[in-house]
Design goal:
Length: about 300
């Protein structure tokens, strides 16, 4: 059953189609990801679902209730992660939670606040001031603030941007913990690894449009090419020649080398070195790996996720 239904959403800023006819459904209890590069329209899409930005066209409903024109009707069902800049520096973690409870006219009991702190593993920081928290801890606090009204759906807009890999992993655990409490989660990210390990399904977005929606596995399997070979060369290699020499299904030039997809690893590598020898160029940093969501994006848009 879908808890969120998005149908033909459009948002224009002047001539710019920030969100261009976007439709998808989010199932109860799933972790749904919107993956895309800067400016793809992820935040704008999220804000229209959250009731913060009015669409130019299309409709959104949460639990069958239309968000527009009266977003007040769905407010009690959702929790929205605020950006850390909106936090009040001189309040303690516990005080922040109590304050946010009061925004919803809730008097949070001690047990309730303990539960929220547990969900984001901030119990040991409950008496710390916000400005004494690390970036990752602030992100976790802002997620707990999205949970004070016990929402059914939680929206997280790039919850791990700017965090180091270790803090990112801890945050993934927090997201999983919230999910295990039965909440539906919609998050945006431009980290393909995050979408891959965390999300049940992923909508890949670029230039205002949803390109594909599926489980990470099916998106990757849909590429058909089983492996990816990356390498560098001391010379500029002709892509068309390389393609015919290696029998690759596709080949592209990335910022620091070449990326080639193939279903015949051995044949392609032999072909690659043969071609290198003939053209007198050296092949360096060769690696072979399985395809990932980055490759899915590359396949559909002809460019990388990172800019
Ligand atoms: N208030 C606004 N006025 C004009 N243009 C806007 C406004 N908000 C967003 N845009 C433009 O709409 C497009 C989509 O922006 P959006 O913030 O939704 O992208 P995003 O996918 O969230 O990107 P990021 O990964 O950088 O957060 C961008 O080109 C952006 O410049
Ligand atoms: Mg954004």
């Amino acid at each position: 059953m879908n808890v969120i239904e998005v149908n033909g959403l459009v948002k224009n800023y002047g001539d710019l189609k920030a969100v261009d006819n976007v439709s998808f459904g989010v199932e109860v209890g799933e972790i749904f990801g919107i993956l895309g590069p800067n400016g793809a329209g992820k935040t704008t899409t999220l804000e229209m679902i959250e009731g913060l930005r009015q669409p130019d066209a299309g409709s959104v409903s949460i639990k069958g209730i239309q968000v527009w024109p009266d977003p007040g009707a769905t407010k009690a069902l959702i929790g929205v992660q605020l950006q850390t800049t909106a936090l009040f520096d001189y309040l303690t973690v516990r005080e922040m939670l109590a304050l946010f409870g009061s925004f919803y006219r809730l008097r949070l009991t001690r047990e309730k606040i303990d539960g929220l702190l547990d969900a984001v593993s901030l119990k040991d920081k409950q008496k710390s001031r916000v400005n004494e928290l690390s970036g990752g801890q602030q992100q976790r606090l802002s997620i707990s603030l999205a949970l004070v009204n016990d929402p059914e759906v939680v929206f997280l807009d790039e919850p791990t941007t700017g965090l180091d890999p270790q803090a990112r992993r801890r945050l993934w655990d927090v997201v999983r913990e919230i999910s295990s409490r039965g909440k539906t989660i919609v998050l945006t990210t431009h980290y393909m690894e995050e979408a891959e390990v965390l999300c049940g399904r992923v909508a890949i977005m670029d230039a205002g449009r949803v390109i594909e929606i599926d489980t990470p596995k099916d998106l990757i399997d849909g590429l058909g090419a089983e492996v990816k070979i990356t390498f560098r060369s001391d010379r500029n290699l002709e892509l068309a020649e390389l393609k015919s020499a290696t029998g690759a299904s596709d080949i592209s030039k990335a910022d620091d080398g070449y990326v080639l997809h193939t279903s015949d690893v051995q044949g392609s590598i032999v072909g690659l070195f043969g071609h290198a020898q003939k053209s007198g160029s050296a092949i360096e940093n060769l690696s072979v790996s399985g395809a990932d969501l980055e490759d899915v994006f590359l396949h559909h848009t002809g460019k990388g996720l990172r800019d």
